[in-house]
Amino acid sequence: MLPVYYKNKKLEQKLLVDLLIKDLLIVELKAIESILPLFQAQLLTCMKLSNKPKGLLINFNCKNIASKGLISLVNSQFSELPKKLLNNSSFINDYLNKIFQS
After folding, report:
1. pTM for the whole structure
2. Domain map of the chain by residue range?
């Protein structure tokens, strides 16, 4: 459960996400026929309301997750992260690529 922020105010409602990594990356897991734009919009909204800069949408119902079932999203907060953190955050993508390519 993540806190929700609206206009820099913390609301009483909470968001439920599948995975939260390093308090920066929201991962939404799906097993659906195809990824619809609606799912991307939901993830972007979740990222914005919880002040998280990066999101991954992973669909397990495909033959190759790395090429067809993985969508990476960032919002405006991503560009505000310190460069040191951005350079170190590539380990998340490398790690996920290793998992899904094996």
Report:
1. 0.73
2. 2-101
